[in-house]
């Protein structure tokens, strides 16, 4: 068993153990990948204030997210194709999150269905919705999430039009992977992954196949998804979905102050400051650079979560100190899942928890709720002086 000390250790194992197309799916952004890169590197520009001679006993990083107690303010973000990183991946990740005491979010584009995850877990999870043109499908999947006891609906707002991700097109990304010669040769080098996939029946999009009209196999699914993301998603449709859902609503993909204010006025229980992990609008600012202005605009009016770029407990601390109420991690736990299955997700959470606790202590704080700008050194030009 390799010694895992950081998220990068899991990333290296993930790259070795998972077929190239699925590692590339996780480790890519749109177009030039500028925003994808800066989501990570902009965290490095923020420095920490070391404080000494402070009693560091009885520390806690526990908190709440949308009213639910959590072991630390970190939720697992929705990630498509998760069940292709490791067999039954969504079930494994949800179990790890439940045992650790943090929320798990299931993607619409998951391999394991809502019902699959509910049957294999006991804690309520969050469900992420992509809005499709087929309103009947949208209504039914909302009803399925309610029936499964999902505790929040995470409505993604930034995917009406799909940003081009060059690697996915070149790899011919699909679930299950097409049996081309390059794919077969690559999968032959990943025997553990292949054995896992042979041992499960879950190899395509479980929330869609058999639930959407006319989608019964992979060929029809490919054409359906290409046509179905709704480019007409607007606040009127968001209101219709809110009313259909009737529970806690999180609006994900907010990267602009005006949109944040609109979401707060709309009554969202939380917003997620996110650029979809740099996978949509390449050239947009990183989530962490946009966070301070959004905090100034809506802090206290709605809960503010930050997503995109978090690779450590230090990143979590920086986001919280800048005013976020919580965070979401995607790639950080996917690396663990692809590396070591459920145990890898647990290891990713353990790494982030330990880094968060240690960093908080060295910054002179005992309670995560006391973090603030006083714990940071932020460059004066961090947010940018834009015309």
TrEMBL record:
Keywords: Flavoprotein, FMN, Oxidoreductase. CDD domains: alpha_hydroxyacid_oxid_FMN. InterPro entries: Aldolase_TIM, Alpha-hydoxy_acid_DH_FMN, FMN-dep_DH, FMN_HAD, FMN_hydac_DH_AS. Pfam families: FMN_dh. GO terms for biological process: aerobic respiration. Residues 1-381 form the FMN hydroxy acid dehydrogenase domain. GO terms for molecular function: FMN binding; L-lactate dehydrogenase (NAD+) activity. It comes from the Bacteria. FMN binds at residues 78-80, 107, 128, 130, 156, 252, 274, 307-311, 330-331. Its cofactor is FMN. Belongs to the FMN-dependent alpha-hydroxy acid dehydrogenase family. NCBIfam families: PRK11197.1. PANTHER family: 2-HYDROXYACID OXIDASE 1 (PTHR10578:SF107), S -2-HYDROXY-ACID OXIDASE-RELATED (PTHR10578). This is Alpha-hydroxy-acid oxidizing protein. It comes from Gemmobacter lutimaris.
